[in-house]
Each structure stands twice: as C-alpha cells, then as structure tokens.
Specification:
338 residues; Jelly Rolls; 1 helix; 4% helix; mainly beta; six-stranded antiparallel beta sheet
C-alpha cells in the first residue's frame, strides 16, 4: 500500500480542504505596507471592493475590513478555530468579554461551542516598515455532545509551544512546531477543555514543519483509522515513498505507516493535520456547524434572539493601541502579557 495519495487537483490557495475531524483550513499571506495612524494600510484603497476585498491587489487583501484589514465581528457555533500566526499580528475581541493581541508564532485556540461572536483584525502596527502577515486558521469540528459547550478562548504563546527537531545524517535539520499532538515523546500544550483534541486517544495532531535543504522527517505509524493530510505550501520539492512532489499540493498520507519525508534543494514548509474522525453528520451553514437541520434552525433563531451575548465593544472592527504588545485578557479578568 502506498503511503501517499497526491491530490494534484487540489492546488493550495486561500482555502484548503480537510478531512474529519477538521472542517477546513484557511491560509492567509499578505504583504501589507507601512501602517497609517489608524493601523490600516498607508496607501490608497481606491478600486477595492471594501467590505468584501478578497482579490490580491498590490500584494494584500482587506478581507471584510474597511479601515484595518481583517474580519470584523461575526458569529461562530459548534466547532473550534485554531489560528496559527507565523508573521504579523491579530487583534481579538469577543462577545464573552475577552480581548487580546497575538502574533509572531502565537496560536489562539477558540472553542465556539454554544456560540460567540469575535473579531480577527490585522493591525498594521509598524508605521516605518512593511507589515507582512502569514497565518493559518484551522477549523476543528466538535462532536455533538460538545457543541453546547461553554465558549472558551486560550492562548498558546510561541515561547511555550514545544519544538521537536530531527537531524539527518548530513546534519541538516527539521523543526516541527507541535501545536497539537505528540511526537518523539514530546507533548503539545493542552487545548481547551471541550476540544476533540483534549482526549489523546483521538490522536489530533497539528504540526507546522520547516525542513532545511536535504533534511529528513519521520512520521510514526498511528492507527488504521487516522486521517492524515500534509499541505506542502512552500519550497521546491519533497520526496515521499520514492516519489518527488512539488509544492502547492495537499497530500493524503497513510496513518498506519511510518513515513519518511526528505526535502529537496531548498527550505520546505508544510502543515500536517491528523486525527481520528468524529464520524458524525455535519450540517453546516457558513459559521454554524451542527449535527442536524433542526439544530441549525435553532441556531439561527438563537442568534437572532441573543446575538450570542451581544457586542460590548462599540465598533465592529476594534483594534488595540499600536503599542499594546502581545497580551490576552480573559472574561474573568485574568490578563496574560508577553
């Protein structure tokens, strides 16, 4: 049995298809210019469809932002968002009273559960230099028993996230950022309480991998039922199972086999998502992910009635002060600073 199924029809762009227990992954890479006084781009925004600007123009998009790029207040229910910021910053506010700024390697884990609103704005904090942004947002499903869980927001700070390193015989290094899961005897930080990733028997793994040229990575065999996908988004090529594969592809890998990956002649970067499937029906409409049509209709009615706690932040696209730094303020008043 081959260890790899190359899904060449799935060129990697903004949205990446996934398998249960994951729902979808978004990849953002924007080369924002210097920021203005409002922390938006210090360039003309003429000829953009502000409010829905998903066309890459001059190296960046505004998304749903009109002044600052990003995603103003919007609701979620029934799943989790795991936001991995490689470069740049994200300003968070939510309807439960939490807020924060994170970036440059930090990860935010948000269980939306019974429902919340939140923002993801991309403040351009530097006025004297460009503000590049690169991030993944991974949607991880919740089982039906957890879809009514209390929303919970947790920061995994870059300095605390374990890294696992491999060295090939030639000395070249592979570094794996262990956002979720276990590798080489190291365990990731704990996710939120209701997460499918909380129980280690579900083998949820979220791995960000950087391979130096001609380096090696060995993925262990886990189980026959594990869904394992590799998203090769930057680099010239890797060799898996005797086959040379160029970047820009999603690869489905066997979860029951040990798999050796060798990088080509340049640095290679990819994301690995793996986990045991939840195996339940998914009924989704945009940001609502439920288990039945009835639950979905109940979600619409509840959101219209309660707005999942309302919105206490005034404007729908708030940002923190330019010099706020990295921090999290939770609904109970606890503050973490980095």
């Amino acid at each position: 049995m081959s260890a790899t199924n190359i899904l060449k029809n799935q060129q990697l762009g903004f949205q990446w298809e996934t398998e249960d227990p994951f729902l979808i992954t978004m990849y953002h890479k924007d080369n924002y210019p210097e920021g203005n006084d409002e922390q938006g781009p210090n360039v003309s925004l003429a000829n953009r469809e502000l409010g829905s600007d998903f066309t890459l123009r001059d190296g960046f998009r505004m998304y749903h932002g009109k002044t600052v790029p990003g995603f103003p207040a919007h609701p979620h229910r029934g799943f989790e968002t795991v936001t991995v910021v490689l470069k740049g910053f994200v300003d968070h506010f939510d309807s439960k009273g939490s807020a924060g700024r994170y970036g440059d390697g930090d990860v935010q884990w948000l269980t939306t559960g019974s429902g919340c609103q939140h923002t993801e704005m991309f403040p351009l904090v530097h006025k004297d230099q460009p503000n590049p942004l690169e991030l993944f947002q991974i949607w991880l499903n919740l089982p039906a028993k957890s879809k009514a869980a209390e929303p919970e927001y947790k920061m995994l700070w870059n300095e605390d996230i374990p890294n696992v390193q491999f060295r090939a015989e030639n000395g070249q290094k592979t570094t794996v950022k262990l956002i979720a899961g276990c590798l080489q005897g190291k365990h990731s930080l704990e996710p939120t309480r209701a997460s499918w990733a909380k129980d280690k028997i579900n083998h949820v793994g979220i791995l960000h991998v950087h391979m130096e040229p001609n380096a090696t990575l060995v993925l262990p065999a886990v189980s026959e039922t594990l869904n394992r996908n590799l998203y090769f988004y930057e680099g010239d090529s890797v060799n898996i199972d005797g086959e040379k594969i160029s970047s820009g592809h999603r690869l489905k890998l066997a979860g029951s086999q040990e798999i050796t990956i060798t990088s080509g002649n340049s640095d290679c970067f990819f994301l690995i998502l793996e986990g045991e499937p939840i195996g339940e029906r998914v009924v989704q409409y945009g940001p609502f992910v439920m288990s039945s049509e009835q639950e979905l209709q109940e979600t619409f009615r509840e959101y219209q009635r309660t707005k999942f706690g309302g919105w206490q932040w005034g404007r729908l696209d708030p940002v923190h002060d330019r010099n706020a730094g990295r921090f999290a303020r939770y609904a109970d008043g606890t503050i973490e600073k980095r």
